Amino acid sequence: MSSWLDYTINGLIVGNVYALVAVGLALIFGVSRLINFAQGSIYLVGAYIGWVAVVQLHTPLPLTILVVAVAAALVGLIIERFGLRPLQNSVRIAPLLATIGISFVLDQLVMLTFSPNPRALPSQLPDVRFQVGNGTIGPLDLLIAGVGITSALLLFVFLRYSKLGWAVRATAQDRDAAMQMGVDVNRVNQAVFGIAAALGGVSGMLVGMYYNQIDTAMSLQATLKGVVAEVVGGAGNVPGAVIGSLLLGLVESYGVAVFGTSYRNLFAFLLLVVVLVLRPNGLFASARQAPPEPLTGTFIAPSRPVRIPRWALLVAAGGFAILPLFPVSFYVLQTLINAWLLGMLALSLTLVAGTIGQVSLGHAALLAIGAYTSALLSLTLSVPVGLAIIGGGLMSAALGTLLISPSFRLRGHYVSIATLAIGEIVSLVILNWESVTRGPIGISGIPPLSLFGYDLISPTSIYWFSLAVMVVLALLQARLLGSHLGRSFRAIRDDDIAARAYGLSLNRYKSLAFIFGGFAAGVSGGIAAHLYSYINHETFNTQQSILALTVVILGGLGNVVGAIVGSVALVGLPEVFRLAAEYRILIYGIVLLLLVRFRPQGLLGTI
Amino acid sequence: MSNIDRRSLVKGSLAAMMAGAAFSRAAFAQSSEPILLGVSGPLTGPNAQYGTQWKQGFDLALDEIQAAGGINGRKLAYQFEDSQSDPRQSVAIAQKFVSDPRIVMELGDFSSPASMAASPIYQRGGLVQFGFTNSHPDFTKGGDFMWSTSVSQADEQPLLASYAVRRLGLKKLAVLHLNTDWGRTSRDYFVKAAKEYGAEVAVTEGYIAEERDFRSTLVRVRDANPDGLILISYYSDGALIARQARQVGLKQTICAASSVYSPKFLELGGEAVEDVHLGTRYFPQDPRPEVKKFIAGFKAKYGGQEPDAFNAYSYDAMNMAAAVVKIGGTDRRAIRDAFAKVKDVSSVIFGAATFDVESRRVKGAMNAELVVRKGQFALWDGKPT
């Protein structure tokens, strides 16, 4: 039984670590209703500035903390001033995309400056250990707890009792009203970003010291866990974020205790989904809090979609169809095959995110379900590949809709976070359900694509096949959008209360959208499985989901042609930048930022 | 098949003419064209560190090859394409290499999903995919153009089990492993061998690569009451586990797989990795001439930095590629056939490497039993810790 004490203490210790990130995220969300995906990158920057201070400059700990806090706050201010402020009058989703772009840029800058090798960040505290239970805790544990709790308390007091704090809260509640009352909203935002970034930077440094290890991959993980903790505690609620973090740590620790290490994150994300379903505003949200605003809906910029004449679409489709007849290299064809596969995923996402307003951050899970279904059908049951791919699409449609259905009652950001969690859960189930999915070993020897008994092996035939499938799906979707169904979808997106008043059953329409979207994504995953011949739980990861969302926003939410154009652009750009080697993702991030800045409604506009 | 080959060559040469000038980044500014190898691996993304280490090993090997007169008078060079270890990008790179007639063979990729997704393209395109870190048991089953010098876990793990059980006398083991295809395969071979040698495996715990907190896992380990911890880890996670094991008060002997062999393991682990045992393929004071040359050359080229396991893999891989190209020339098929012909290529990992033509892998990795003493890797002197 004494072990339970140890599990509890360990859970609290790691929860402590999560709290540092979650508090910063909560502060920003509270004011600007924005999940700051760059928070993990500021954490990374803080860790490396800390490394420079400790290892190169030999600063004492208080000075190190000060240096890191000031430097990180500066980064935060720069992000706010140049990355986000120019976007404040554009689509509400544009800042979200901008933070993703900023995180690319910051991560790459750190990687280029310091090389991707992990580094040791020695702790500057004396190495004494206190016996607690059967384990020990050190001074760093206490310092991290101290920083987490003190900053949460200070922020709480600041928000409640200081004038700037009132301004922050007023801005959070109603930006326009706050402006009318003479609140300098920009100054508020600056203050919030500065504080959150300082906190993020210091937490990165402390966590780096805690593990005596910093590396450039730590940013995304920090963001993920921080978002989970923050939402569990109640998005935008600073003390709630601390409690949510501790709870997350405990659930993970008990999960390990009962089921073993490989189930750890499964419990973290299950906790999130359960909390979201039962208490959509988080455990500690105040009842007075304004309802979460939809990410899209009324916040979609009143943009006119670019009308592309039908003949131009026909010419473009025809041009791509006859492309392999010209002497283009297989490399170009393969890149376009990737674009068509991503295009199918983007079609699916642009339907659920753009047309019906459910912004999904876990869309790669649908690829994975389709890929595994198709691979296993063809391998173990010898189903012909063509049918297996359709089976993959159907399974994705069914399973995806089933998994997402509990979160149909959620709105705005919460849908994104729920889908993010569901995506992670699917990946972890694939990893752990060995009897079916073969676990970490993955599935190898998946038969190549074939149709009516003919193997599609040459890049040319795969190209035509994937292009044809994508075009058919796109035509179906365009037809769908033009029908009464499409209008109902958009009605739900733009005002779900009005839509309900007109007698539309929200759940039924959301299900329909996910069924159609799930099918398209599943087919894309199925084709990919047969193309790659080997898949495992890492083949379809979170980065894919984020990429798909980027494509959709870039092309214009809900815009079928936009989704395809966006896919070609985002598959093509990193390939075009190949000559820049290590710099290519940096360039890609900058291009993304510029696009968001100057065309936030997407290249082809929202439909 | 031959039909495809001819087409790809025609198309490839056109593409090469169009893009020819642009590719000169990896090529040398010499009048005679170098023989070009394609490398597909991570330079950005979560695995970027391994791509960086590859480059160090490649460059050192190339310096030596060039100094020794190159390949029959021609220089050897490589073109490194960043795949981020992402299958979507590795398949595009595969097509790029297959259709570029200057590329005579390919090295990489790093992760199994990225490498094995590209295998069908290399196989159909008739270009050797030489995967030197690909331990997935099915990698070389992708076809006769897939060859690997990755140490087979069927070879390595019994050696580690023998060290832990027979030499160190551990009887009840807790195995912590990366929950990847590599970690999982390794664990299975290790457990099998350890049981054969008479030890009991009390608990096995798989963790994901991004994991940083192992305290709760270590409570599970403690409750199983083992007398030794086995780490099937890379150096960064291995160092984390060792540190946290000492912090939660576990004092058992720790024995780790060769993949932790890196100066970074010592740097990241600090005092916690003192007395950690590990089986490796070579060690700093190794008297073998190829190892001495490798370590001395590496330190000289990279400002005194100690090489690690991934540096050694890539150094060996480039030397192997040179040996193969020497026999096979620049014809892709002849290069594939040359893999079966090379004999006793000097190798840090294998001593002398010769391929087993059946499995297209190399057997008989060298083995050294090391221990960390005073913050340095040292040959184990047989004394208990």
Automatic annotation (TrEMBL), chain A:
GO MF, one example: branched-chain amino acid transmembrane transporter activity
Localization per Swiss-Prot or TrEMBL: Cell membrane
Membrane-protein topology: Multi-pass membrane protein
Organism: Bradyrhizobium cajani
Pfam (any one): BPD_transp_2
The protein, known as: ABC transporter permease
GO cellular component: plasma membrane
InterPro entries assigned: ABC_transp_permease (IPR001851), LivM-like (IPR043428)
Key words, A-Z: Cell membrane, Membrane, Transmembrane, Transmembrane helix
Spans traversing the lipid bilayer: 12-35, 42-59, 65-84, 96-116, 136-159, 191-211, 254-278, 311-333, 339-357, 387-405, 412-431, 462-481, 512-535, 547-573, 585-604
Main location: membrane
TrEMBL record, chain B:
This protein's UniProt keywords: Amino-acid transport, Signal, Transport
PROSITE patterns: TAT (PS51318)
Leucine-binding protein domain ranges (all copies): 35-366
Signal peptide boundaries: 1-29
GO terms of biological process kind: amino acid transport
Pfam families in the cross-refs: Peripla_BP_6
Keyword Ribosomal protein included in the entry's annotation: no
PANTHER family linked to this entry: LEUCINE-SPECIFIC-BINDING PROTEIN, PERIPLASMIC BINDING PROTEIN OF ABC TRANSPORTER FOR NATURAL AMINO ACIDS
Family: Belongs to the leucine-binding protein family.
Protein name from the UniProt record: ABC transporter substrate-binding protein
Naturally occurring in which organism (per UniProt): Bradyrhizobium cajani
